[in-house]
Design brief:
Layout lengths: L5 E3 L7 H11 L1 E2 L14 E11 L9 E5 L8 E5 L4 E8 L9 E4 L23 E6 L5 E7 L3 H6 L3 E7 L8 E7 L16 H4 L18 E5 L3 E8 L6 E6 L3 E6 L2 E7 L3 E3 L4 E7 L6 E6 L6 E9 L27 E9 L3 H11 L14 E3 L17 E3 L4 E8 L5 E5 L4 E6 L9 E2 L1 E4 L4 E7 L4 E7 L2 H5 L3 E6 L1
Parallel strand pairs: 1-3, 3-6, 5-10, 11-13, 12-20, 21-24, 23-31
Antiparallel strand pairs: 2-5, 3-4, 6-8, 7-9, 9-10, 13-18, 14-17, 14-19, 15-16, 15-18, 19-20, 21-22, 24-29, 25-28, 25-30, 26-27, 26-29, 30-31
The structure holds CU-O-CU linkage and copper (II) ion.
Length: 483
């Protein structure tokens, strides 16, 4: 234990300057882009979830009551090492009565008891309480963590953090930059707008009004010149779907949702909520600028600019080096069992509301809105007449291979996420999905059918839901059981 590096952040709002420096040195840092080193990895973190008045650059000088994990103006980036034990201590200091939390480590294949789903894998941490999570991440890459109840408001107030599992580079990059896409729902006066609307929840989600990367509108970020720059793009927006691309540099996709893939030239990439994309690019000569763009809008939107400075780092021809691959059980496609999951809209809102009002479901009002617009296999969470948890959507046999047919019957997109596992994406009815990759969240376009495969190799009850958070909270959520 003595060799363990524990970082302590949060708690003393007035001393944030000092604390932030300490935190940065110890490996949990602000989202200011910087070169990261493997030696920055920590084996423990203390996070205090609290309301903190925070002035992000995109708030135009206003300070808003964000809910965050640490003091200071931005999000935590926690870096850990693959194969090394990690422990997070979470204190719930939220100011609202009954606002309990659990922390979900999105995309990590860890033990079910550490997965952070209220009531299903643990009792939630009540205000004033503390909880601990321990796990040894086996997969490298770019992940994030967040609460798992009342997520629309929690994300809306900025409650999420970046988790980087180090150890995947065979050749170190010259810069390693975290870019978090998250829009904010602000009025013209720069106050929070309601985080959800019925109209949004029943359609594509209630969009933010101010686009931002790392809390800033169109930030300019310095990068070394003629260098191999790794970008870790995270879409933690509750609703936004982008089509990201790079102008001004040759860029390759090197990982999807943390999962290394064969480097593939990036033209553009459809990028839904909860997805991550790791990109390697060669920056231009000093003075040159690289743009990160979203082509999904009618006119391409510049999300951020990278400005190259300093002496050139490299003179060779650029070729992205592949990352070390993950170790996972390969699905036996010939003998896999086929399962179908349909994603549909529901017209049974009123009935489900009446039911959940009377059944006294301990899953709690906090985890759900009182509306039900969406369903998986016609089952809207929570399903009627189940005092505790509804029945699993699927029961999987431990060690068996499965092919899931994910069918979107609606005219909205749905980023479908599974806990505790990753899928291998096999095919789509609408498009070619290159490069062949694994993911923990797969974007289903309207009316699309996608086939994914997995080996059910992690026992427990695992959530399976849409990551447009308003869809999740209005029915498009269920669980599978692996035993
Ligand atoms: Cu980020 Cu249940 O998900
Ligand atoms: Cu959805």
């Amino acid at each position: 234990m003595l060799t363990r590096r524990r970082i302590v952040i949060g708690g003393i709002a007035t001393a944030s300057g000092l604390l932030c420096k300490t935190a940065t040195d110890a490996g949990v840092d602000q989202l200011a882009p910087r070169v990261m080193r493997a030696s920055d990895a920590v084996s423990a973190a203390d996070l205090e979830v609290a309301e903190r008045l925070t002035a992000l650059p995109c708030f135009d000088g206003r300070a808003l009551p964000l809910w965050t994990f640490q003091d200071g103006p931005q999000l935590p980036v926690v870096r850990v090492k693959a194969g090394a034990p990690f422990e997070a201590t979470i204190k719930n200091s939220l100011p609202r009565v009954g606002e309990h939390i659990t922390i979900h480590w999105h995309g990590l294949r860890i033990a079910n008891g550490q997965d952070g789903v209220a009531f299903m894998t643990q009792e939630p941490i009540q205000p004033g309480g503390r909880g601990t999570y321990t796990f040894t991440p086996r997969d490298t890459g770019t992940y994030f963590f967040h609460t798992h109840c009342n997520s629309v408001e929690h994300f809306g107030r900025g409650l999420f953090g970046v988790l980087i599992v180090e150890g995947d580079e065979t050749e170190p990059s010259d810069a390693d930059i975290v870019l978090v896409m998250k829009d904010w729902r602000l009025s013209a006066e720069r106050d929070f707008l309601p985080f959800t609307t019925d109209d949004g929840a029943a359609k594509a989600g209630t969009a933010g009004t101010v686009r931002a990367i790392n809390g800033a509108t169109r930030p300019t970020i310095d990068v070394p010149a003629s260098a191999n720059v790794r970008l870790r793009l995270l879409n933690v927006d509750p609703t936004r779907i982008s089509e990201v691309g790079i102008e001004g540099a040759i860029a390759s996709i090197i990982a999807v949702d943390g999962n290394p893939c064969r480097p593939m030239p990036l033209t553009s990439w459809r990028f839904g909520p909860a997805s991550r994309l790791d990109i390697m690019l060669r920056s231009p000569k000093a003075g040159g600028v690289v743009r990160l763009l979203d082509y999904f809008a009618r006119e391409p939107v510049v999300l951020a600019e990278l400005s190259a400075a300093g002496a050139p780092r490299r003179r060779d021809r650029f070729a992205a080096t592949p990352l070390k691959s993950h170790v996972f059980a390969k699905a036996d496609l010939a003998n896999a069992e086929r399962l179908t999951a349909t994603f549909s809209a529901t017209a049974t809102g009123a009935a489900v509301v009446a039911n959940s009002d009377q059944s006294g479901l301990p899953i709690g009002a906090l985890c759900l809105s009182k509306r039900s617009f969406w369903a998986i296999n016609k089952q809207a969470w929570p399903s009627a007449d189940h005092k505790l948890l509804g029945p699993p959507l699927f029961k999987l046999a431990l060690g068996r291979s499965y092919i899931f047919e994910l069918q979107n019957l609606t005219s909205q997109p749905h980023p479908i996420h599974i806990h505790g596992h990753t899928f291998e994406i096999l095919s789509s009815s609408l498009r070619k999905l290159f490069p062949r990759h694994r993911a923990d969240t797969v974007l289903l376009l309207p009316k699309e059918r996608i086939e994914v495969a997995l080996v059910a190799d992690n026992p427990g009850k695992w959530m399976f839901h849409c990551h447009i958070l308003e869809h999740q909270e209005t029915g498009m959520m269920g669980h599978i059981e692996v035993a």
